[in-house]
Design a protein that fits this description.
Blueprint (H helix, E strand, L loop, with lengths): L7 E2 L5 E2 L6 H29 L5 H26 L5 H6 L1 E5 L7 H17 L3 H9 L6 H6 L1 E5 L17 H6 L7 H13 L5 H15 L13 H30 L11
Antiparallel strand pairs: 1-2, 3-4
Length: 270
């Protein structure tokens, strides 16, 4: 159970993997943001032409410059600052810009991304952003490199496989066996093996099952019934360990409810 170089390790020594957005989602999000900016620019040009009607060229140039700064710098900077890293396109695609340490971005990062984005996206038609995203393992465009940010997926749907089931003929043995000495790391390795076993080749599945079985039985008393297939022994141990953990958590929860008064706020209608 190693910690990857892209993982964020929090204070409790738990590694959190924030999945970086793929290049396809980047392009879709950027396309939506460009469409919104073009629409804002068209509206701004219409309003500016009405406001500056009859004005001299110098006033028109100033108004056009202010409009470009507003559309391409001020609006995206304000949007990402106020929403902590989300533009309209990111709202639609479930993305968010975060710092390299996975924290929320601020005004400085949003402004840097907007300034560099004006050059790499608008002036250079997005080519540098696309090339940079393809070369970066986190899909960073040049603005992200300059600001120290990257884009992550917020809408990650987890699909967890079902937990190992207890073999019926081993239920009585597992319920009476002493499995408390089984290390957590070894139990995690067994659980992962059982969940991945159907996808393994028969030879690898059998070899790894025997290896884990030989490690696990050294912590068990009494030993499992003779002749039991190793994979069934592992499933019985993990299933009963899960049953015992569930009972312990339920007991702790009942004890907390008995000792700690109920919060009156919880009884209010929602």
């Amino acid at each position: 159970m190693g910690v990857g170089v892209d993982d964020l390790v929090i204070g409790e020594a738990v590694a959190l993997e924030l999945p970086a957005a793929g290049i396809a989602m980047h392009v879709l999000s950027g396309f939506l943001d460009v469409a919104i900016a073009v629409l804002a620019l068209v509206i701004g040009l219409f309003v500016t032409s009405l406001v500056t009607r009859g004005a001299d060229d110098a006033m028109v140039n100033v108004a056009m410059t202010l409009l470009l700064v507003l559309v391409f710098v001020v609006l995206p900077t304000a949007m990402e600052t106020l929403t902590r890293g989300r533009s309209v396109g990111k709202f639609a695609t479930g993305l968010r810009t975060v710092r390299d340490d996975a924290g929320p971005i601020g005004f400085r990062q949003a402004l840097t991304r907007a300034l560099v984005g004006f050059v790499e996206i608008w002036l250079l038609l997005g080519v540098p952003a696309l090339v940079s995203g393809l070369l970066s393992n986190k899909g960073k465009r040049l603005g992200d490199h300059a600001a120290g940010t990257y884009v992550v997926r917020e809408r990650v749907h987890l699909s967890l496989p079902p937990p190992p089931m207890m073999p019926p003929h081993l239920a009585a043995w597992a319920a009476g066996a002493d499995i408390a000495r089984l290390p957590d790391g070894l139990a995690m390795a067994v659980r992962q093996f059982l969940m991945r076993a159907p996808a393994l080749s028969p030879h690898s599945r059998a070899a790894l099952g025997v290896q884990l079985h030989d490690e696990v039985v050294t912590y068990l008393a009494p030993q499992p019934p003779a002749g039991t297939p190793p994979e069934l022994v592992l499933a019985a141990v993990i299933a009963d360990r899960r049953r015992r953990d569930t009972i312990r958590l339920q007991r702790d929860s009942a004890l907390r409810r008995r000792l700690i008064p109920a919060d009156p706020i919880d009884s209010l209608p929602r």
